[in-house]
Every structure is written in C-alpha cells, then in structure tokens.
Amino acid sequence: MKKRSTQGSLVYSTATGRICPGCLRPIAECVCKDRSRPRDGGDGIVRLSRETKGRKGAGVTLVKGLPLADAELAKLAKQLKARCGVGGTVKDGVIELQGDQRDKIKEVLEKEGFKVKLAGG
Hints:
Layout: E1 2-4, E2 10-13, E3 17-18, E4 45-51, E5 60-64, H1 70-84, E6 88-91, E7 94-98, H2 102-111, E8 115-118
Parallel strand pairs: 4-8
Antiparallel strand pairs: 1-2, 2-3, 4-5, 5-7, 6-7
C-alpha cells in the first residue's frame, strides 16, 4: 500500500515505511537530510514528559511532537529556556529542558497555538 500527500508526493510505502519528501528514499536511507523542512508532527499534539533515565537521577522535561524545522525548533527552545530560567538542548527534534518545567512550558506553547498534553508521570 502506498500513501500520497496532498501535493501528490509519496510519503509512505508498506514495503519501506516512511519516505523522505526530499530525496524520495526511506527515512533510514535518506541522503538529503533536508532539515529545513518542518518535521512530521504526528497527530498534531505536543507532548510534555519528564524523564530521568540515563541522567543519574537528574530530571529533564522533554517536548516532543513539534511540527517545526530545526531553525524554528532552536528558536523556540531558546525562548523556553529563557522563560524557565534553565539550560537545555535540542536533540533529534526533541527539546530537552533541565528540571520539571512542564507547567510553564504548557502555558507558553498554548499561547503559541499548539495543542499540548502532559505525558507520562
């Protein structure tokens, strides 16, 4: 089964899975690495979660599901870090902020027009 986007380009194939819209290869074999395009936001819901795995007990807040390109994601991460007064980073389309900042982040993202859910514990 093959699925096409509204513009007509191939986005999914049951044989290979998700297809890169830039080079039309499976995502795992993408050669263009076109990160100027917005990321696939999934179901349109931004999920905020707290995680401590692999961080020696130090908790971080993860912001997943933002349908933004890398440059816009970095800009938003900078805004969130300043608002919360903490450090953080962007890794693979996920914003990581130090500490449990879910309530502050939810407020900011809802003002920006995103639908936000608290995920996990």
